[in-house]
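Input record, target 12 of the design panel.
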């Protein structure tokens, strides 16, 4: 329908009020309809304009419901004519017939002979008129957006489709920007979705429950099983009906009515014929029926909208004719508060933005109190109309609070995401003011009507007081939240504490900044920092009395406050673990091998355990009171070089009674020949819960000594013979260890020079324990003659 047809000026008067035809969605009996043909002066074909009232498919209209208007005459072209809608009329058609001498009679006879066909034609024409208005609004808006703001085309085209109830081709947005407009506006007639409001208005054209030929056709197998839109269905239907409406003199072609104020312009799909059968153009006026109000609804009725927001958008859907026609006019937003005060604000339709635009930012709304609601109202044709209701918030200064658990103290270099609590409806901007006064806009997200989330970018050099400024529509000054940025500080990965312990352990980094830890009034202090790669372990010592920690039972959750040396306090949740196993070393005994070449050595330190010896020690279980059968004992080097486990299952542990256990350690078997150094032990309970390390013994390796050979001259030194002499640190001939002879590093020989023995006795220090003096009794033989 792109061929230009005739134009006519129309307005309608009801109860003393006159409206242009573009604002009239329905006629009623008694309405006065003024029509004036708008014919160019150079028209050479004379047309009859024939307004006709119909009263249903089973009741031919009387002859006086037809009006003959000679459109080329000066009187009608100057003054027009006025008709009154008669009682019982249901439809009004407008015919344009070439003047042939009997044209008026021919049209009247055709309509009265087959009124049902014209009723259906009126129905489909009006359906096409309404749908065409939606398509025109969509195409015009897409072209305007593409020309002015192509980058925003995708967002606004989707809002258009929602508002006008169309289904657009999403794949168009995958094309380059300059090709998206042509894609979106191609084949638009197949984008139309059925609209319940339009259907109800069209149904009003016929009395009773007349069948809707649009729905019938668009869902029929012949029409492609629903492939066609309602617009295409109406056009196909009209072609069929009009094809059966012709006489030897006239054939009827439909025209789509395009309304603009008082002007009705016809758009034709076929060019008129001026030879027999001549073309009679037919158009329809709004139905003669009670008013059918648009079922408009809010898109998000649960949201609070800010009344002071510039160009406030009231997002709506469900009634596309509100935006594609002028039926709704004089639209305003009436705002009420709980105290009874109200404001009336103009509302502008904007399908590109998905609803009504209300400019309320310059109005004084400070007096509004309590709950604020607003409702769209206006006129639908001649009748007052109420639209959907919205909830509003009025801008006001607020005190913003952080969500529980978050701190106003931030750490430089660490990402910080803050949740702020207050009304968010009127927030326009969130920005950060640095300690140097520089302003930086921040991205933010409203997580609900009372929650706002934003991320704070802080470099490693950030220091001092920063101010988070929240600006609201209608407020000249921002709401401010003060934050203090500290230099990079200790990072707490976790805090471990077990029931009945008087100490704990922190893991993290930069733990040297920890001053103390407070757990329910139990204060722990730093004792020792240990490093495990990039992770630090800080041992914390607490009260010496177990009575103070009895309140921390196994499984209880405690909030610990880690106090840093710069005054900051870090919150660390702690779950108290099960009690750790505790044992006491009662006694120990070192069994030495009495045979062999190491038997010459008598160890001076009772804690030295020869690698070739065996250690037997008794333990008493303190926690739990009875030694568990699944508990093991770990023996390891203090420096972590080697370890072994003793258990009841492998007979390295033996219960003396329920509380006392005998442990047997064979170092050579457990650790191998290269193990030496201080040993420690700890109990290992169920689930890997370990007790404290306790010192056990010092593992030493002994050299194998054979004899001492001395020369006859008493002044000359002697020679010590044996194996593994590199295990000797130094040798002397007196218990005071004066004038010792050290063994060189890397010594690999089988003999070494030593002082002359005191009888048969030498004193030596071992490389594995250079602090203890040991005694060696060896055969002293004269040195063989050279």
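The sequence produced for target 12 reads:
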């Amino acid at each position: 329908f792109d061929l230009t047809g005739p134009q006519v000026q129309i307005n309608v008067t009801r109860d003393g009020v006159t409206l242009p035809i573009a604002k009239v969605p329905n006629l009623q009996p008694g309405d006065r309809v003024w029509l004036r043909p708008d014919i160019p002066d150079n028209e050479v074909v004379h047309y009859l304009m024939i307004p006709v009232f119909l009263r249903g498919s089973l009741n031919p209209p009387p002859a006086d419901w037809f009006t003959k208007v000679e459109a080329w005459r000066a009187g009608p072209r100057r003054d027009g004519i006025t008709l009154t809608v008669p009682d019982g009329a249901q439809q009004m058609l407008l015919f344009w017939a070439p003047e042939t001498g009997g044209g008026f009679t021919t049209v009247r006879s055709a309509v009265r002979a087959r009124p049902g066909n014209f009723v259906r034609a009126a129905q489909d024409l009006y359906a096409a008129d309404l749908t065409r208005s939606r398509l025109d609004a969509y195409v015009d808006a897409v072209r305007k957006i593409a020309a002015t703001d192509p980058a925003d085309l995708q967002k606004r085209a989707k809002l258009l489709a929602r508002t006008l109830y169309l289904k657009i081709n999403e794949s168009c947005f995958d094309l380059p920007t300059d090709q998206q407009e042509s894609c979106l506006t191609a084949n638009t007639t197949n984008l139309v979705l059925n609209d319940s409001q339009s259907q109800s208005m069209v149904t009003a054209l016929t009395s009773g429950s007349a069948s809707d030929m649009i729905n019938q056709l668009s869902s029929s197998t012949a029409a492609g099983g629903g492939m066609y839109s309602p617009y295409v269905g109406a056009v196909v239907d009209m072609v069929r009906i009009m094809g059966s409406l012709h006489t030897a003199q006239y054939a009827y072609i439909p025209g789509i009515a395009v309304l603009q104020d008082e002007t009705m312009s016809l758009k034709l799909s076929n060019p008129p014929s001026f030879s027999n059968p001549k073309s009679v153009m037919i158009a329809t006026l709004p139905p003669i029926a009670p008013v059918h109000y648009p079922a408009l609804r809010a898109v998000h009725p649960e949201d609070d909208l800010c009344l002071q927001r510039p160009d406030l958008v009231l997002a709506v859907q469900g009634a596309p004719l509100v935006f594609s026609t002028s039926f709704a006019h004089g639209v305003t937003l009436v705002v009420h508060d709980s105290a009874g005060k109200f404001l009336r604000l103009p509302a502008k339709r904007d399908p590109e933005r998905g609803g009504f635009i209300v400019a309320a930012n310059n109005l004084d709304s400070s007096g509004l109190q309590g709950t604020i609601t607003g409702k769209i109202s206006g006129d639908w044709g001649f009748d007052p109309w109420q639209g959907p209701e919205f909830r509003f918030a009025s801008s006001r200064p607020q005190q913003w609070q952080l969500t529980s658990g978050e701190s106003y103290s931030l750490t430089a270099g660490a990402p910080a995401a803050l949740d702020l609590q207050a009304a968010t409806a009127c927030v326009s901007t969130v920005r950060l003011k640095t300690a140097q006064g520089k302003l930086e806009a921040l991205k933010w997200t409203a997580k609900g009507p009372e929650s706002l989330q934003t991320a704070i970018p802080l470099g490693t050099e950030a220091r001092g007081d920063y101010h988070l400024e929240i600006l609201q529509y209608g407020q000249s000054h921002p709401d401010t939240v003060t934050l203090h940025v500290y230099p990079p500080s200790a990072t707490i990965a976790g805090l471990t504490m077990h029931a009945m312990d008087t100490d704990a352990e922190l893991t993290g980094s930069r733990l040297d900044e920890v001053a103390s830890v407070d757990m329910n009034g139990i204060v722990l202090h730093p004792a020792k920092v240990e490093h495990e790669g990039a992770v630090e372990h800080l041992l914390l010592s607490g009260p010496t009395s177990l009575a103070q920690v009895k309140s921390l039972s196994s499984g209880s959750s405690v909030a610990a406050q880690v106090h840093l040396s710069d005054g900051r306090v870090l919150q660390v949740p702690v779950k108290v673990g099960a009690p750790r196993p505790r044992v006491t070393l009662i006694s120990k005994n070192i069994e030495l091998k009495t045979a062999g070449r190491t038997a010459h050595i008598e160890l001076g330190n009772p804690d030295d355990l020869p690698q070739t010896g065996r250690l037997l020690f008794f333990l008493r279980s303190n926690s739990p009171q009875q030694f568990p059968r699944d508990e093991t004992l770990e023996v390891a080097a203090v420096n972590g070089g080697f370890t072994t486990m003793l258990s009841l299952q492998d007979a390295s542990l033996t219960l003396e009674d329920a509380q006392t256990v005998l442990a047997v350690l064979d170092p050579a078997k457990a650790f191998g020949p290269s193990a030496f150094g201080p040993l420690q032990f700890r109990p290992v309970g169920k689930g890997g819960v370990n007790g404290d390390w306790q010192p056990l013994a010092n593992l030493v390796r002994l050299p194998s000594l054979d004899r001492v050979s001395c020369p006859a001259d008493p002044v000359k030194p002697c020679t010590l013979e044996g194996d593994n002499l590199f295990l000797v640190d130094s040798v002397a001939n007196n218990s005071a260890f004066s004038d010792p002879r050290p063994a060189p590093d890397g010594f690999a020989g089988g003999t070494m020079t030593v002082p002359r023995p005191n009888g048969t006795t030498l004193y030596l220090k071992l490389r594995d324990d250079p602090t203890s003096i040991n005694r060696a009794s060896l055969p002293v033989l004269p040195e063989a003659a050279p």
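Confidence is low (pLDDT under 50) at residues 201-228.
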